[in-house]
Amino acid sequence: MVHTTSGPTVTETRSLETALLTPSVRVLADWSVTALAGPVPANVQRITVPATVPGSVHTDLLSAELIPDPYLDGNENLLSWIGLTDWRYSTTFVWNPAGADRVELNFGGLDTVAEIDLNGVRIGATRNMHRSYTFDVTARLKAGLNELVVVFRSPVREADAASLSLGYRPHVNHHPFNALRKMACSFGWDWGIDTATSGLWKPVTLVSWSTARLGTVRPVATVSGTDGLVAVHVDVARATDAPLAVTASCAGVSATVDLPAGATSATVHLTVPDVDLWWPIGYGEHPLYDLGVSLHDGSADGSGDEVDSSTTRIGFRTVELDTTPDAAGTPFTIVVNGTPVFVRGANWIPDDAFLHRVTKERYLQRLEQAEFANINLIRVWGGGIFETEDFYDLCDERGLLTWQDFLLACAAYAEEDPLAGEIVAEARENVARLAAHPSLVVLNGNNENIWGHEEWNWKLRLDGKTWGAGYYYETFPAIVAELAPHIGYTPGSPFSPGENGALQTDRYPNDSEHGTMHIWDLWNQRDYPAYREYEPRFVAEFGWQGPPTWSTLTESIHDAPLTPESPGMLVHQKAAEGNVKLTDGLIPHLPLPDDIDDWHWAMSLNQANAISTAVEHFRSLSPHCMGSIVWQLNDCWPVTSWAAVDGYGRPKPLLYAIKHAYADRLVTVQPRGNGLAVALVNDSAEPWAGELTVRRHAATGEALAEHVEQVSLPARGTVTVLLPAAVAEPTDAAGELLRADLGGVQGHWFFTEARDSELTPGTPLVEAERTASGYSVRVRVDTLTRDLALLVDKVDPDALVDDMLVTLLPGESTVFTVTSARDVDPAAFAAPNVLRSTNQLVRA
């Protein structure tokens, strides 16, 4: 394993949001972009257009009306030439020297293979979009007008060339993304558009300073008894060798450390008495403390001037990953402040193929949707990016636990330079940058690479080449131990720990008895009731596909006729044999509709039911199983995928299914042995007790049998109640169901698949009225109604509804609260393509 760094400069980054900065920071704007070598269409050749920074080639060309929207119809394929083209970004700026000792040019993010010229002189070349770069340009600037040029080489051609140079390594999809340090899914994924874009995806700034400035500020906050301990690790850049002093302060406690002449690093230790602990959502409050760091010239006697400062927020908590062997194998439990947490998680991908379009407001919307669905952990998948400060700040504030993968996914990676040096450099920079965030509890070495090495015939194809093991078992754990020892580390997902928690082991990496696992055989080959055949310790990925919402589908695809196999639909279905798997996964449960509107509802519903089945089963196994992370929360463009929120930010029925299945208190009926049982899950902080009532009903609503039992669950407890045969065994399977109820929390069990049941459409009574924020829609049913849903986006694309997928007995009613700013005919909510249920899909 090669432990080196590479690149044109030593990169220095701030790990903190800067509230007060003595150095002068100037954002460089007024950029333009021009196509250079490549298969450039005639209408783009020799044309220079304004460029937005942060931005990308695609969005600049779109703003200039030179290309169609890549998200629409089949435009993705029409725009493949962009990734095969070199691009020139340039700007000019006036510089007036003001006597600063040092002037630095900082690039927050360059995507990806770039050459940088200032006033006609090459100052650097870069090959990694996951790093920032700082160049000393003090001697390169001139009074008056200066020109800055960044040329980006074709990422597709560069990846191909790098693959040849490093030697082929196995990877999924069609580009060798594993040879280049560019966001893997920029080259397309089984849910992602292939843009292979280029651009300055983060700001470009000129920073002028004198004497010294803060480089990396890396606080490590831990807990000892009732005290909070903060070790503030500070690196500084110097223009002189004069003595300096660093002061750190938090909650009224401060300390100062001298930096002797020439010293560039120091650690300031603070002890904050009687701190309030940071807890994940559902376990307590999430207090954050302001930490201030200031850099002074002179010594600790306070006689010097402040030359730089920064502020951030930290939280005090402890984290352990419990993999202590037990009689059933090896658990994987995230323990926060000594308390085991059942993870109710979702996987996160980049929220837009063009990263600069993801604003803090958009992060907030997505994380609010996660909270709505009772999610308590977001896993940032390794084929995307190290997420931004905005993302992590919001998770800190809201108590959302986070798990960040290192950016190696579904591929083998060379362990030789130049790739090795880039991977090490990006890992060090980003671990240091994210270390302060209390929400970050897991750093994970890779996504599916250890599993791929064992399972996907990589060993034959590698023929002895390195594949990444050195990163996962040596380099990354060493970096985490050095820079973020307060954050848990696991070498991969899935991963089976060895004896005594060893990172490197001969155990099969996707073993249900040990550690974390991914379950994909059901979507790919089997059917979702088979989730119940697994008894995992922790499931980090599992999922089922469904289309985007109807509004998103019809806004992005304009096929006439629109069918599951029409041209635009196939462009927006990236999974191998995706439509075949959708069909095969539906027919055991429901007939395949011929009408596109019914097809859309059936596939959306089936996705929701598949994930409900899985999550309720996994939760019923707790504490044997201590977490599930659904694939996936969000999408990066409008596409048929595993997401719960589609590419235009609209919630799919799946989000409501997750909300129900992840509720603090869950009542679920599960097969146990040759019979049925009610699993009661109390993931709240309070005990739960009462009268459990289980009734077997006829489709008419008549109660045919009943079991009543007093139950009591402790906080964070699970109880399983076996049902007597008189209740659990139907006399007419097609026309009966079970309803279990504890304190108003209900669970249902149907004895047959919907397609074989006696469900009938019925005639629901719908009463809708305008409210201050939208509409109140009361629905009363006259027949057993399964999975009642109001697809409000068909009435107003921006509307939201508070619930979905409600099962009612004849004569029962429910009220949907709709948020909408649009004036619509209330009768629209009663339309049969808006008010949906499973009943509509069952053929007589």
From TrEMBL:
<dbReference type="Pfam" id="PF22666">
    <property type="entry name" value="Glyco_hydro_2_N2"/>
</dbReference>
<dbReference type="InterPro" id="IPR054593">
    <property type="entry name" value="Beta-mannosidase-like_N2"/>
</dbReference>
<dbReference type="GO" id="GO:0006516">
    <property type="term" value="P:glycoprotein catabolic process"/>
</dbReference>
<dbReference type="GO" id="GO:0005975">
    <property type="term" value="P:carbohydrate metabolic process"/>
</dbReference>
<feature type="domain" description="Glycoside hydrolase family 2 immunoglobulin-like beta-sandwich">
    <location>
        <begin position="253"/>
        <end position="317"/>
    </location>
</feature>
<dbReference type="InterPro" id="IPR050887">
    <property type="entry name" value="Beta-mannosidase_GH2"/>
</dbReference>
<keyword id="KW-0378">Hydrolase</keyword>
<dbReference type="InterPro" id="IPR013783">
    <property type="entry name" value="Ig-like_fold"/>
</dbReference>
<comment type="similarity">
    <text>Belongs to the glycosyl hydrolase 2 family.</text>
</comment>
<dbReference type="GO" id="GO:0004567">
    <property type="term" value="F:beta-mannosidase activity"/>
</dbReference>
<dbReference type="Pfam" id="PF00703">
    <property type="entry name" value="Glyco_hydro_2"/>
</dbReference>
<dbReference type="InterPro" id="IPR017853">
    <property type="entry name" value="GH"/>
</dbReference>
<dbReference type="InterPro" id="IPR008979">
    <property type="entry name" value="Galactose-bd-like_sf"/>
</dbReference>
<feature type="domain" description="Beta-mannosidase-like galactose-binding">
    <location>
        <begin position="48"/>
        <end position="202"/>
    </location>
</feature>
<dbReference type="InterPro" id="IPR006102">
    <property type="entry name" value="Ig-like_GH2"/>
</dbReference>
<dbReference type="InterPro" id="IPR036156">
    <property type="entry name" value="Beta-gal/glucu_dom_sf"/>
</dbReference>
<protein>
    <recommendedName>
        <fullName>beta-mannosidase</fullName>
        <ecNumber>3.2.1.25</ecNumber>
    </recommendedName>
</protein>
<keyword id="KW-0326">Glycosidase</keyword>
